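Good day; I would like, with your permission, to put a structural problem before you. A protein sequence and the structure tokens that stand for its backbone fold form the material at issue. I would ask you to consider whether the tokens describe a fold that such a sequence might reasonably adopt. I set the record out below, with my sincere thanks for your time.
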Amino acid sequence: MRARRWTSALAALAALGLASGARAAEGGDVSVSVSSPAPGGKLRDYLHQARIEGSALAEHGGPDQFDVMLVIDVSDSTKAASGVDVDRDGEVGVDPQNELLPPGAFDPAVRSTDPGDTILQAQVLAARSLLQGLDPRRVRVGLATFSGEINPSTGERKSIDQQDAWLDVALTGDYAAVDRALSAVLARGPNGATNYAAGIRLAIVELAGLSGAKSVPRAAAGKVVLFLTDGIPTLPVGRGNVEDPGDDEAALRATQLARSAGISVNTYALGPESLKYPRVVTEMARMTVGTYTPVQNPGDIVTLLQGVTFADVEDVVLTNLSTGEFSTDVRLAPDGSFTGFVPVREGRNRVRISALASDGSRGSVELEFDFEHNAIGDRSRLTELERIREQNKKLELHRLGLEVEQFRLEQKKRLEIEPVRPDEAR
């Protein structure tokens, strides 16, 4: 009966015109716009760095608005240590089951010596960090969690029709509401087994506006799922601690529906096994033209989730044509907006902002402004620059691909054939 209901849902999607297939880049330029500083304007600061803000959009018919469902694993295994000092209290929690500790030092149920450093805590912090880089005017975010209650005597689902996924907040531009929902997730804590299919199906209901949805879909918005898990699918079939073929099939059938609805699924597998590229999470990403990101150290999800792109923009670099200096100190948000710093000199500066799309297409814009050194300036700019550099350093260890490296090398080589403009005022 349940399979027939989802077959009917697929037919409904097709009737609504939503079964359009996954998003695919088709080439074309990248549109780059700058919101600050104003062309011809004047900057005054003590730091010889100009702060550049703007956005980049791949021009292959892609949307400039996005509806994003965060789908987070809250199964019992997420109470394990993440390997990172998530709560920044100076102590990195460890799993006492893997340590040489005196008998009775910790209850057998404890999986992290610091309860603020669990995998669930890391997932929540990653979600909060992601929200800080998004524009609520362009990106709505919803939150769903999944696990699966099991009968302790049989190890199977407690009830055949039980709920294994929960909508914590419908799609919204009110990020404070999402933040409150994340706090509620932490308050509930980890529990149960892992039902991938339930999490994916709930996300589809909200993104596509199917029967029972609490969200109102936007036809022109790109639809994205960010799927975080530290385990393999163990439900809805059989025992909750075993990956059965039926568990895999249920997850992939749900993903097929996501593909038919034009929903891209980006998957993040947390833990050492992620480097073995588990079949289900990699297939979920492949089927929907999403991305699969292995997170060997679960705590690294805090950094890696900020590196996702659902605007098909991979990189933005800044070049000061007046000084011949090149900068990759740019924080690129998933929706294509960016904030970066480029070295500047006294007087007139001409800066090129260049962007790389996922399909290899490029775009750029040039901007002129004047700079004047001021002993009294906004000292927070230096802190922001240092944070951008630190974040990029962490991301590059995991995500800097060959195409991005070639793009940056190309921008540097352009400087070799474009002489510095000495006629510009200093």
User: Anything to note?
Assistant: Residues 1-28 have pLDDT under 50 and may be disordered. The first helix runs from residue 2 to 15. The CA atoms of residues 151 and 375 lie 67 Å apart. The chain has nine helices and 15 strands.
